[in-house]
Amino acid sequence: MEVLRIAGQQRLEGETSLGGAKNAVLPIMAACLLIDGEIILHNVPALTDVLGMRRILELFHCSVSTDSDTLVISTKGICPGELPDELMKSMRASNLIWGPCLGRFGKSDIPLPGGCPIGVRPMDIHIKGMKALGAMVEEHHGHIISDGRHMRGTEIYLDFPSVGATENLVMAAVKTPGVTVFRNVAKEPEVVDLCCFLKEAGAKINGIGTDTLRVEGVKSLHSLEYTVIPDRIVAGTILLAAAMTRGDVTITNVIPEHLEALLAKMAEAGITVEREHSSLRVHHVGAIGPVDLKTLPYPGFPTDIQPQFMTVLSVAQGTSVICESIFENRYQHCDELRRMGADIKVDGRTAIIQGSDHLDGAMVDATDLRGGAALLMAGMAAHGETLLGNICHIDRGYCHIEKLFCHLGADIRRVLV
Ligand code: EPZ
Q: What's the distance, Cα to Cα, between the start and end of the chain in Å?
């Protein structure tokens, strides 16, 4: 079994750049099913979830080739394919092919997705929206079977600004005859990136970046070349790791506007972040103060950075309170942090973190993608060595995470035990 052996009391120093955003490239790859011709995608990160989505496209007889961080996809031979449940259950993003399949084939048979065990993660908002568009939807033996041949434009209000539901429904609507108005949609930068990608392929979408999208159906979408936005969640992880190790790290190709909520909370904790047009630098030597935060849909504090921020607060001077309002089970990393000496009490969606002087290295296991990244951060700052298992979770969202941090001075080795 592969584990990461992490030396403690490391100080991160230097400059790094970001790969493309996992949560943008996955819906964009799914959207390629809607496009006639060749799509060239740049800034594609080498992640296991990207490999999973590539496999799905190939099962629909698309040809996919890679050259460094560029993906070339051709839909010339596209036709319906059989999707193995194992593959679809390996990640949450597999559900994002539902909308494109309806737009491409008029019907779909999608095994229910998997992904991080951070909550029940139902599909009710997706299903309600597809039915509002006029699709026939049935659930059988863990599959969603739908017929979208009679879909028509309509008005849809999302009960919650779900990222995946917004993405699936927009992809279903871009080739649906008529005009569809979506209200209360998600505005995450990754949703915006998908909409910009579709618009460059010829889709008619207005209101991108707002909570109301107006989509006018078109007959076809054409070839394009597109560069995926940098990964703001990886950026936040690096910034917080730099602060926790009292380091000096600059990220060169970040979009600071995507991280306003995090930067505000870091400032509140006394962590100074120097900001240029497309770079952020943390050079932190002082104490870290306590902070209260609540995770919210964008532009609120991102749930995907909650575990990492909690880790920083576990060595802050004082008591902090976190409310995780997005997912009902996103505190699994707390048990593992406690094994390292963190003082965290969880009551439902609220966590109370009493800052300790330091954490101690221990044997811990990643419980999910971002929780795993948080434990790696803890290991770099802790006194003594940490062994981190279940790192397959981390590889889904971070490209060779040990290389990323070793480049900045950390001592982390991927070993077989
Ligand atoms: C996306 O998941 C991201 N994944 C998640 O990132 C991210 O945490 C999440 O958005 C929120 O920002 C990808 O983009 C691949 P949601 P998604 O639908 O689309 C409830 C990571 O670490 N909900 O916005 O699944 C749901 O249960 C991952 O990179 C319904 O109730 O998130 C959750 O409580 C983790 N019914 C809340 O909405 C639905 O039909 C937010 O879910 C859909 C969602």
A: 5
Calpha distance 266→34 (Å, rounded): 40
| Pocket of ligand 1 contains residue 122 by CB under 6 Å | yes
**H or E stretch at 183:** strand 179-183
Task: Pull the structure tokens for residue 191.
Answer: 């949703």
Residue 195's φ and ψ, nearest 5 degrees, are -65, -40
CA distance 72 to 93: 20
From the CA of 191, how far away is ligand 1's center (Å)?
Answer: 12
pLDDT along the chain (417 residues), means of 10: 96 97 98 98 95 95 96 95 80 88 94 73 93 95 92 98 98 98 98 98 98 98 98 98 97 97 97 95 91 98 98 98 96 97 97 97 96 98 98 92 97 95
Residue type, 323: C
- The total of other beta-carbon atoms located within 10 Å of residue 348's CB is 9
Which token pair is 325?
């309002």
Which of the following is catalytic: 62, 116, 196, 399? 116
Determine if ligand 1 sits within 6 Å of the CB of residue 369. Answer: yes
CA distance 69 to 80: 27
Smallest CA separation from ligand 1 atom 42, residue: 162
Distance 298 CA to ligand 1 centre (A): 12
Count how many Cα atoms sit within 13 Å of the Cα of residue 13 in the half-sphere of its side chain: 6
Q: Is the CB of 327 under 6 A from ligand 1?
A: yes
| Ligand 1 atom closest to Cα of residue 188 | 12
Half-sphere exposure for 141 (CA within 13 Å, toward CB)? 2
The CA-based diameter of the chain, rounded to the nearest angstrom, is 62
125 Cβ closer than 6 Å to some ligand 1 atom: yes
Distance (Å, whole) CA 391 – CA 403: 14
Amino acid in position 96: L
Residues constituting the chain: 417
- CA–centroid distance, 357 to ligand 1, in Å, is 34
Residue 330: CB within 6 Å of ligand 1? Answer: no
Residue 178 CA to residue 215 CA, distance in Å, equals 8
Within 10 A of 13 (CB to CB), how many other CB atoms are there?
15
Give yes or no: 116 in active site.
yes
Both structure tokens of 154: 């309509």
d(CA 179, CA 197): 19
pTM: 0.97
Q: How far apart are CA 358 and CA 345, in angstroms?
A: 17
